[in-house]
Amino acid sequence: MLFSDIIGQADIKQQLIQSVQHNRLSHAMILLAPEGAGGLPLGLAFTQYLVCENKQEQDACGQCAACTKAAQFVHPDIHYSYPVIPRKAGDKPVSTDYISEWREFVTTNPYGNAYDWLQFIGAENKQGNITATECQDIIHKLNLKSFESGYKILVMWMPEYLGNEGNRLLKLIEEPPANTLFILVAENQEQILATILSRTHLIRINALAKQDLVKALEEKSKVPAAKAQQIATITAGNYREALYLLQHSDDDYHELLRNWLNHLFTGNRVALQEWIEGISSAKTGRENQKQFLRYFINLLEHTIRLQYIDRSLLAFSEEEMDFAAKLAKLANLEQMQQIADALNNASYYIERNANGKMLFHALSLKLQYIFKKKPLPVL
């Protein structure tokens, strides 16, 4: 992947290139980027630039043998690590078990998130991990001599999935073999081991600038200018989310949300219980639950916008616009903020393996209190 393939982020591209040109290259760094900002593409383009045999002023050449191999993710001195799942009970998987899937995924969906990747490899509702066995494999690979390049490089995507076993890598990070580089690509600093953070150079990457996202939607997805502006406004610099809005109507989420609120307002406890059983089932999965909550938050934001700007300037469907208009009559701004906070908290606890049935029971009760303007009970 070339820097020229990446949307925006001109300052970060220049910073990475100059770190090589001015010999200020850190042997261990974390590219910390919000979802959809291009953290992984930047990491991949940087590794290709590092091994390129004919570096240009602003990019790799894209033509030499090293570039060809790096672009196909087959360069022998570039290693990849990412969360994986056991294929069967008792397995101790490592990243190379999924290298064919990885190559296909990063080629077709480089702005995807961990949920997209885990679904791509058939995880369904299983939790991905970077395991102790993977750490041992990394240590083994990086202690070998390089084959072709002056560098041996590890690109670790989502170090947030490292548990305490990640401490096995500390000695290697502190005292790496000569010309060994660690490039970690992360989204959430709080979920990275503190011991890893303290030993790496942190490079913060901002969400995509609106004009860069608009340009990408117009040029890469052939989206009309007006719609590209709308989507860029809604997704706040998240290219992955922008593509999701383009490719999915979210009809299922819309129906799911409408049924939930109907059950809450009518007080139909039997129907609400059935709804909770469905949303919290293993078939739905934790990541899908988070996507549903995000959809609700998105709709709340639209509901607020609808009160101040013309509906023709918004990018949801007419059905969703009508739904948002009705929601505006049921909740004021303060209530919407309370609902959004409750949804964000629920998503946080889903990530931490909260019991889905209990969580959605509690969330349903909270929403009922909020809509009725009653103070939430203190337990």
Tally the helices: what do you get?
17
CATH topology of the largest domain: Rossmann fold
Task: Name the poorly predicted regions.
Answer: none
Number of DSSP E strands: 5
β-sheet strand percentage: 5-15%
Structural class by SSE content: alpha/beta
How many domains, as an integer? Answer: 2
> Approximately how much helix is present in the residues?
40-55%
CATH superfamily heading of the largest domain: P-loop containing nucleotide triphosphate hydrolases
Quick one: CATH class of the largest domain? Answer: Alpha Beta
If you average the pLDDT, what whole number results?
Answer: 88
**3D shape:** globular
Strand order of the largest sheet: 2-3-4-1-5
Q: Biggest sheet: strands, sense, closure?
A: 5 strands, parallel
* H/E series: HEHHEHHHEHEHEHHHHHHHHH
Structure described in brief:
It comes from Chitinophaga eiseniae. By secondary structure, the chain is of the alpha/beta class.
Task: Considering the chains and any ligands shown, give keywords for the structure.
5 strands, Rossmann fold, alpha/beta, Zinc Finger, Delta Prime, domain 3, 17 helices, 52% helix, 379 residues, single chain
